[in-house]
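Hi U.,

Before I forget, here's the chain from the pilot set. I'm dumping it here mostly so it's searchable later in email.
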Amino acid sequence: MSKRAKVKPKSEGTLVLDAQGLSLHVDGDDGMRARVEVAQQTGRRVALSALTPLEVRRTGDAAKRLRFLLSRFDVKPVSDAVMDTAAKLLDVSGLDGHECLVDALVVATAALCAPPVLLVTSDKSHIPALCKAAEELPGSPTVKIVNV
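Structure:
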């Protein structure tokens, strides 16, 4: 009787959640839950910037659910590489660092994740401009937007 080796699913990239994506998931949105489940089932990592939970703070049972979800996701630190990439994104896009700092850090985090990268967001102004700017970085990382 031969034993079959377990084969790890091939990495299918990364699904990155911004504050709105994480917030919807914490609040039990069926559409967001389905996106995350499909991503995980197909081998796509679910990631977010370490800053994102600060934007999505909750209390009570929602705080417990947030902690549980964060334990299952890849929470990326705000490293030197992320900060350098965010600065380049702001320079290329021409956006203001004071107004767009967190968005730039989220897109920089996404740009440094394993491709292909999908970024879940409700932002229709800064995030698209920053994702377009990412294509001008070394390696031309593509960060596609999933609007929620």
